[in-house]
Amino acid sequence: SKVDARGSFRFFEPEMDARLQARRLFEVDLREAVANEDFEVHYQPIYCLNAERICGFEALLRWNHPVRGRVSPVEFIPVAEELGLIVPLGEWVLRRACEEATRWPDGLKVAVNVSAVQFTSASLVTAVRDALQATNLAGHRLELEITESVLVANPGATTAILHNLKMLGARVSMDDFGTGYSSLSYLRSFPFDKIKIDQSFVRDLCAEDGTEFIVRAVIGLGASLRMTTTAEGVETEAQLAKLRAEGCDEVQGYLFSRPVPAAELPDLIAHWNGAKRA
Ligand code: C2E
Ligand code: CA
Ligand code: CA
Ligand code: CA
């Protein structure tokens, strides 16, 4: 009846308002945080199985809001992309991470995530060049992690951007490998240096559901294509043993360390690589 329809409409409307308003407030907070550079970068070690030492760190953004508390990048990165904030935010992380890496011993590398929106923005290559110049970090110590979604959007432009990044000496990694579309043809067409095997495969590595054969195939593929293979999300000794047996080059996960603030890196490096400091 009329009454029912109006009743449910009235009930629905304020809820929509509340959701919209919450979203607006989130956007306001995020804009303010970007303007104030109110973020931190944490670093997670990447462990080389051949050398048996840490060979680099992945930079991961952290937002700790005074009222909201810790907000996951899974939550705020997509909003930053929508609002066009990912470009300044991404450039900030890049600069921060390069600066931090100059303090590490033994030429340890730094891996920085590049979002699809940032990747296709006109300024990425310039931003990378500027960050390397300003910090004096050697280009080969910088790895840029890119997901397949980047490649789907505009394959032509992607090839040019990847080549320009490589001209600066930077390495490029395919992140979250196996979770997108057409991974295999992308490996053939684009000059990646590294394949990061998504943590969903590592999680099921010991599940006896065939996952280990997929992982074996990806590691073999990486070796044939002369790409480094890195397994993400390694949490158990059993997973590590399997990856080692399959000849995976590098591993990353809570088994070694969670992402930590920069101040904790000297201890972490001393623990895994010996007491030698820069
Ligand atoms: P990602 O690039 O795949 O990063 C790996 C994520 O897995 C990180 O989550 C890391 O903390 C988490 N992780 C590491 N080891 C383990 C493990 O052993 N077990 C489990 N369960 N998780 C593990 P985080 O830091 O929450 O980041 C989530 C995603 O947000 C990243 O996924 C990346 O896509 C995005 N992100 C983070 N920082 C940045 C950034 O600076 N720029 C861009 N564009 N994206 C970022
Ligand atoms: Ca990554
Ligand atoms: Ca990943
Ligand atoms: Ca991921």
How does this model look, in words?
With 278 residues, the chain is α/β, with parallel strands linked by helices. It contains 12 helices and 10 strands. The longest helix has 34 residues. The radius of gyration is 21 Å and the shape is globular. The model has no long low-confidence stretch (mean pLDDT 91). Bound molecules: ligand C2E and calcium ion (CA) (3 copies).
List keywords for this structure.
alpha/beta, Deubiquitinase, binds calcium ion, 278 residues, globular
Please outline what is shown here.
It contains twelve helices and ten strands. The protein is an alpha/beta fold and 278 residues long.
Write the layout of secondary structure elements.
Blueprint: H1 2-35, E1 40-48, E2 53-65, E3 69-71, H2 73-82, H3 86-101, E4 109-113, H4 116-120, H5 124-135, E5 142-146, H6 148-153, H7 155-167, E6 171-177, H8 183-189, E7 194-197, H9 199-203, H10 211-224, E8 228-231, H11 237-245, E9 250-251, E10 260-261, H12 265-273
Parallel strand pairs: 2-4, 4-5, 5-6, 6-7, 7-8, 8-9
Antiparallel strand pairs: 1-2, 1-9, 1-10, 2-3
Helix pairs in contact: 3-5
The chain binds ligand C2E and calcium ion (3 copies).
